[in-house]
């Protein structure tokens, strides 16, 4: 059984009745490989959950399942009380509700920065183009790249591209933001500019699931740390508890290697 503390009790006694993301008993295989094993995870509104763990443990698959970029074999995933839609317009709306920022920046290479942040608003959220552009410029300003609006992604640094990716996701007015190692592909001097944008979002009360090895971010922004290994949630606790007194051998071993 996974080691857990009050996080689990909080769920059981209904304090998470207002949960935004719920996974119940989720399983996923890739062929013979069992990548998600009986995953139970609840993310409350406004909560910041940092997911940590060794490579290959299933962290990306977990994020992709929440955004339905992967289907799961069994179990239940609810976003704001509703099961993930299978396809069509509902799926596009779900993807907008669940913003995702990947390790690789994933911007549209042949669109300008402004177009990257405008397109989804018009296509999925059905905003008119002028309003969408206005909103895009506000968001680009907020993430500190307003002056890059008319450039193409390849003309930007990695840190700038990742901030545009965040602005693009925010433009959809998501209910929750998923970040899958958003700073792992960045040169060291660009990591902080992206983490600062994420810190700011956390302070503003955005619900966030963040896969990262940035322990400073986890310590200062996370309400909860989820440690995942071999497809399981092994430990789920506060950042203080996790970093000062991890309980599972798997987490102790992991921390001894990265800290
Ligand atoms: P993490 O993000 O924690 O490193 P992943 O979720 O990417 O872990 O991967 C979990 C396991 O699933 C790994 O063994 C990985 O090789 C495997 N895997 C991930 N995606 C696929 C896929 N599309 N097809 C087959 N195996 C996959
Ligand atoms: Mg990964």
TrEMBL record:
Keywords, in A-Z order: Amino-acid transport, ATP-binding, Cell membrane, Membrane, Nucleotide-binding, Transport
Example of a GO cellular component annotation carried by this entry: plasma membrane
Stored SUPFAM superfamilies: P-loop containing nucleoside triphosphate hydrolases
Chain ranges of the ABC transporter domain: 21-255
Top EC group: translocase
Listed CDD domains: ABC_HisP_GlnQ (cd03262)
Membrane topology label: Peripheral membrane protein
Compartments (UniProt record): Cell membrane
Main location: membrane
InterPro entries, per database record: AAA+_ATPase, ABC_ATPase_HisP-typ, ABC_transporter-like_ATP-bd, ABC_transporter-like_CS, MetN_ABC_transporter-like, P-loop_NTPase
Catalytic activity from the UniProt record: a polar amino acid(out) + ATP + H2O = a polar amino acid(in) + ADP + phosphate + H(+)
Family: Belongs to the ABC transporter superfamily.
Protein name in UniProt: ABC-type polar-amino-acid transporter
Source organism of the structure: Streptomyces lavendofoliae
Upper lineage: Bacteria, Bacillati, Actinomycetota, Actinomycetes, Kitasatosporales
């Amino acid at each position: 059984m996974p080691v857990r503390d009050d996080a689990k009790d909080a769920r059981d006694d209904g304090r998470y009745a207002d949960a935004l993301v719920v996974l119940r008993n989720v399983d996923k295989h890739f062929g013979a490989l069992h990548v998600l094993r009986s995953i139970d995870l609840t993310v409350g509104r406004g909560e910041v959950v940092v997911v940590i763990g060794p490579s290959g443990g299933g962290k990306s698959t977990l994020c992709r399942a929440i955004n339905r970029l992967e289907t799961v074999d069994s179990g239940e995933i609810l976003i704001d009380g509703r099961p993930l839609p299978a396809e069509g317009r509902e799926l596009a709306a779900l993807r907008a509700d669940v913003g995702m920022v990947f390790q690789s920046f994933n911007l549209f290479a042949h669109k300008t920065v402004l177009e990257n942040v405008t397109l989804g608003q018009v296509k999925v959220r059905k905003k008119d183009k002028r309003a969408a552009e206005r909103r895009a410029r506000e968001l680009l300003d907020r993430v500190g790249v307003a002056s890059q609006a008319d450039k193409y992604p390849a003309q930007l640094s990695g840190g700038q591209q990742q901030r545009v990716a965040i602005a693009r996701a925010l433009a959809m007015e998501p209910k929750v933001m998923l970040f899958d190692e958003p700073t792992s592909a960045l040169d060291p001097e660009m990591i902080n500019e992206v983490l600062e944008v994420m810190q700011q979002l956390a302070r503003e009360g955005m619900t966030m699931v963040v896969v990262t090895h940035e322990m400073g971010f986890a310590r200062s922004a996370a309400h909860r740390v989820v440690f995942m290994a071999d497809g399981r949630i092994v430990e789920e606790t506060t950042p203080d508890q996790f970093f000062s007194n991890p309980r599972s051998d798997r987490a102790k071993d992991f921390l001894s290697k990265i800290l």
